[in-house]
């Protein structure tokens, strides 16, 4: 059985348009990581604004692919380790999931394509990235402790690249 702490969480939606993402990618490009992905630069901006994190993120993903993707190792072992990190006993852990490039907006169940797609999972310290309807931007859904969200919402560097809760239409 999963038990959740009695903390007050809140979820906010922020949207990054294509031009802001392109600017972030140019800013984040380094000799080590000449072509950062959208997910890498947005995760870096959301987590800590330190561009070295993007290179560490890429390295971690590549190590995961080698360790669990091609080798045939049991990915359940990874998720057990991940679960122990997320339980909060060793400090705060944050999860960032990308649903980008999933064709959610092309699905048609005979009543038309969706005008807006979002996720409805709310877990503490979770960030979920999805494409915007036009496919050019990225929407981030963040679930954070209220006190952390207040700090996040006043982050001037982040707000220079994002729109907080714009209309979905």
From TrEMBL:
<keyword id="KW-0012">Acyltransferase</keyword>
<comment type="similarity">
    <text>Belongs to the plant acyltransferase family.</text>
</comment>
<dbReference type="Pfam" id="PF02458">
    <property type="entry name" value="Transferase"/>
</dbReference>
<keyword id="KW-0808">Transferase</keyword>
<dbReference type="InterPro" id="IPR023213">
    <property type="entry name" value="CAT-like_dom_sf"/>
</dbReference>
<protein>
    <submittedName>
        <fullName>BAHD acyltransferase</fullName>
    </submittedName>
</protein>
<dbReference type="GO" id="GO:0016746">
    <property type="term" value="F:acyltransferase activity"/>
</dbReference>
């Amino acid at each position: 059985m999963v038990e959740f702490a009695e903390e007050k969480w809140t979820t906010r939606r922020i949207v990054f348009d294509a031009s802001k993402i392109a600017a972030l990618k140019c800013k984040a490009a380094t000799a080590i990581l000449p072509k950062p992905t959208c997910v890498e630069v947005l995760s870096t901006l959301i987590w800590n604004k330190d561009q070295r994190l993007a290179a560490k993120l890429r390295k971690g993903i590549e190590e995961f692919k080698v360790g669990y993707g091609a080798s045939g190792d049991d990915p359940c072992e990874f998720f057990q380790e991940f679960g122990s990190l997320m339980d909060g006993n060793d400090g705060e852990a944050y999860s960032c999931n990308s649903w980008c490039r999933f064709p959610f907006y092309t699905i048609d169940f005979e009543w038309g394509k969706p005008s807006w797609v979002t996720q409805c999972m709310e877990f503490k310290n979770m960030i979920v990235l999805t494409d915007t309807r036009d496919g050019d931007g990225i929407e981030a859904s963040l679930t954070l402790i209220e006190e952390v969200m207040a700090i996040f919402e006043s982050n001037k560097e982040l707000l220079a690249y994002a729109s907080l809760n714009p209309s979905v239409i």
